[in-house]
Amino acid sequence: MNVLPSRRNAVAEDKEPSAPSPPPSAHAAAPSKCLSGRCYVVTGAAQGVGEAVAQALAAAGAAGVTLVDVNAAKGEAVRASLAAAYGASLRAVFVEADLSSADACARAVAEHAAAFGGKCDGLVNCAATCARAGW
Ligand SMILES: NC(=O)c1ccc[n+]([C@@H]2O[C@H](COP(=O)([O-])OP(=O)(O)OC[C@H]3O[C@@H](n4cnc5c(N)ncnc54)[C@H](O)[C@@H]3O)[C@@H](O)[C@H]2O)c1
Asked: 44 in ligand 1 pocket by Cβ < 6 Å?
């Protein structure tokens, strides 16, 4: 009897196992003309999508990023990792803020403005809660 291989086996035979993706680094992306030298606010930047956005902006040549998050320990760790990776070419600021409060939003904007002389080229809102249970 002719038995067809399962799809899983067919794929495994076709392809060599791929190496895991390298971690984000200072050289992960080429500098971008439109992002280079600019400064941004990224919310929810302590982990997940927000952290990835902050890393990508830094890799693209951004001059500054204000990381905003309610999680101070993780947010400060992301700021420190960016500072270590990019040195003087990137100014990274962390602002602890619970963005469910309008006052905290205003304070985060004020702290960014104070750090970057009022300049803000973009805002990426990633702060959110994400229930993964049951997925
Ligand atoms: N991860 C994915 O693949 C994916 C895909 C599509 C959409 N999304 C959406 O993107 C958003 C972020 O996803 P994620 O995976 O990065 O989530 P995450 O839970 O990993 O990160 C969210 C970040 O937001 C911060 N945060 C939450 N509430 C806050 C508040 N009130 N003030 C300040 N910071 C706050 C958290 O501390 C955390 O650092 C969610 O809305 C999610 O549904 C995620």
From this structure: yes
Query: 50 C-alpha vs ligand 1 centroid, how far in Å?
Result: 7
- Domains and their CATH numbers in the chain: 32-125 (3.40.50.720)
The CA–CA distances, whole Å, from 61 to 27, 41, 66, 95 equal 10, 15, 14, 21
pTM value? Answer: 0.82
Work out which ligand 1 atom sits closest to the CA atom of 129. Answer: 27
Please answer whether residues 121 and 39 qualify as being in contact, where contact means their C-beta atoms are separated by less than 8 angstroms.
Answer: yes
pLDDT tens digit sequence for 65-119: 999 999 999 999 999 999 999 999 999 999 999 999 999 999 999 999 999 999 9
